[in-house]
């Protein structure tokens, strides 16, 4: 089994490689948090390009290092563009992150998410309810029940463990469950990443931008290390920003500052535990 | 007639109830200020979910406590989705807030707004020009003339009083006119809420997010108290944020912080006057 | 040839006129930075109205002082609306700013940009790669080669000089190339505007909002003075904000504050050099 030191070394490499190489990451993402996602991606050292059209997503899939798909605020256009882009990412062997926001609401959303199963996203990031619901939708874990309410999770992170493992085994990638303590798994190991801030629930986009940042790291590291690096830098920056913030408004700008200032060693040393499955 | 103490007690209850129950509010809102709307809704204690599709809006109308419709940056998709969602809100008896941004510009905008008349929004929030124009469009007050210029008001709040009362009498709900002093009416009483900041006109979204926050309060209080609570917390937080801000950029984050920090008593004690009609 | 003092006097007049007259500027712009564009336009003293529909753009073209078109995050709707709006702006003789974001990516984007040639935007603002690519697309400078990568420029500002001059000669307006030092030309004179901040590359929307602000100035000044005033206020505010910021998050709000606080004289005195062609 992989040990803590090895993981930390790989996190150092990932954070450092992003800062040095400024990887381009394309995104199709929701209109609520699109600005925050882009700014978070830039703060950690990536380059961001957001599109909606199929051919533009395909182009960025080809030239970029990774891609981020977030299905919040879906529009009819996505029916054509998202499966096309996901298909190209799979065909090109490019890493991509899926954020199944509000899975279970609406027909088109379920229809698109169902099609994504075949294109095996390298990283799936969601809250506990979303991870459980997606594993259910894909027929990978029908035992666990989900309680999605709008875009919020009403389930605890731990309750999504079986679903997360099932999803990771299917994709061969990693799954990250966001919550008070984040859970990241590649299907064989589970890591719990600590830190963060209570303000994460008082601003919109903490989850979406974490997914976008995971895509930046996925351009330079394997899905498991990328997902873990993203969770670690979020938990670190969240904790630091909370100490300086006087409310959720100031927290947002402090948080982006801390994402920008975190060193590779800082990120690697953020508290996490490993659990063999 | 309702007296000041009774109103203040109800504001305390509304602000407190939102903090305790974290009501879910769905929105269809413009792309310019969508992030600010969501963050304001979260700051006062609500939960925000933004959608564009008819079936998703219908779902949130059913499970949420209230809904917010802002027709800024309309797209052709709204032709189907907005009347459908408004119709379901009316059918379900769910409170909803209408923000008739830029009423009078464009054919589709007028067409959609005309259809909303039958679905009686619980709260209508706009600047003076928008309230006058909407009352004219709905044939409720043809005497007053509106001067909409883009998304700005060129009319004084007081000039919209007759239109606001006419609209409130039609809907049976409340109407809030935003300006230097805000006017809120349920058709039988007019309240003037004081405070705010000159920065409200130097940032985008002060009005939109006020509408979104009114929807959060409408999930736990009657339309009149909800509209008044929203105006009061905005006027209070605006005043406090202005004292700490060094410009419109810092004002935005200070303002969100102050929305978050305001206590129910603070909000209820924000200066207002009652005028019988 | 125009001398430095004359230019400075015209910048003073432009910045002052915007503050006094609060010109209305309509925009069709991308969803990533739409909020930042509007807030920057308000901070310098303009009024902002964002739309997507053809008839609404036409209306704002008629009543507004200038218009801003940014083709980032294009959607199928733009195929009809953008050429229509640009055509009306040309017909009405209204100044408009084109931001050819990511020119070269996707079929629709090239198709729309090609049509804009006939409608001669008063100001074209882009990074070096975009300016070179647009001059190539319009057949005005086929000698220079562009290296667009997503939305980033991989070319130096100086390498776009010939393309910028060729574009300005075609439109009869001005061209602004953004980079470490900004280049602004009207086809007969080239001005280099100094200052800015390394954070401009670490936030999303520095370029877009510069284009939006150029449109605000274009409502009160000729295209060359407008483009130069916009570059000058950006370089000044960027430099000042950087001194107060502790990262890209705080930089954003400091920057908006500095845009708001800059006096006409401050802006006119920001360092620039003139070069005769």
| Multimerization state | homotrimer
* Rg calculated over all Cα atoms of chain A: 17 Å
Major sheet of chain A: size, sense and barrel closure? 9 strands, mixed
Low-confidence stretches of chain A: none
Largest interface: A-B, 34 and 33 residues
Distance between the termini of chain A: 10 Å
Give the structural class of chain A: alpha/beta
Portion in beta strands of chain A: 15-25%
Number of helices of chain A: 11
Order of helices and strands of chain A: HEHEHEHEHEHEEHEEEHHHHE
Q: What is the total tally of β strands of chain A? A: 11
Spatial order of the strands forming the largest sheet of chain A: 2-1-3-4-5-8-9-10-11
Q: What percent of the residues of chain A sit in helical stretches (DSSP H or I)? A: 40-55%
How confident overall, as mean pLDDT of chain A? 96
Shape of chain A: globular
Question: What is the secondary structure topology, with strand pairs?
Answer:
Three copies of one chain form a homotrimer.
Chain A: H1 4-21, E1 24-28, H2 34-44, E2 47-50, H3 54-63, E3 66-70, H4 78-92, E4 96-99, H5 107-116, E5 123-127, H6 128-137, E6 148-149, E7 152-153, H7 161-171, E8 174-178, E9 182-185, E10 189-193, H8 206-218, H9 223-244, H10 248-261, H11 264-269, E11 272-276
Parallel strand pairs in A: 1-2, 1-3, 3-4, 4-5, 5-8
Antiparallel strand pairs in A: 6-7, 8-9, 9-10, 10-11
């Amino acid at each position: 089994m992989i040990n803590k030191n090895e993981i930390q070394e790989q996190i150092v490499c990932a954070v450092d490689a992003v800062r040095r190489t400024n990887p381009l990451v394309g995104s199709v993402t929701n209109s609520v948090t699109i600005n925050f996602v882009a700014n978070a991606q830039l703060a950690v050292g990536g380059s961001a390009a957001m599109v909606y059209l199929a051919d533009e997503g395909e182009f960025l899939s080809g030239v970029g290092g990774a891609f981020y798909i977030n299905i919040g605020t879906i529009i009819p256009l996505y029916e054509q563009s998202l499966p096309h882009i996901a298909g190209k990412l799979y065909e090109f062997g490019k890493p991509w992150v899926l954020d199944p926001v509000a899975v279970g609401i609406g027909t088109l959303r379920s229809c698109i998410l169902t099609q994504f199963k075949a294109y095996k996203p390298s990283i799936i990031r969601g809250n506990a309810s979303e991870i459980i619901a997606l594993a259910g939708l894909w027929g990978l874990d029908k035992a666990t029940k989900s309680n999605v309410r709008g875009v919020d999770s009403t389930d605890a992170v731990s309750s999504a463990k079986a679903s997360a493992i099932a999803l990771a085994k299917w994709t061969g990638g990693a799954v990250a469950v966001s919550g008070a303590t984040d859970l990241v798994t590649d299907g064989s190991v589970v890591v719990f990443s600590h830190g963060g801030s209570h303000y994460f629930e008082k601003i919109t986009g903490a989850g979406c931008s974490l997914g976008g940042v995971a895509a930046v790291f996925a351009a330079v590291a394997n899905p498991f290390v990328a997902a873990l690096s993203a969770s670690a830098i979020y938990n670190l920056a969240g904790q630091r920003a909370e100490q300086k913030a006087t409310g959720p408004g100031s927290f947002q700008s402090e948080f982006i500052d801390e994402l920008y200032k975190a060193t590779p060693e800082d990120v690697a040393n953020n508290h996490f535990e490993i659990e063999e499955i």
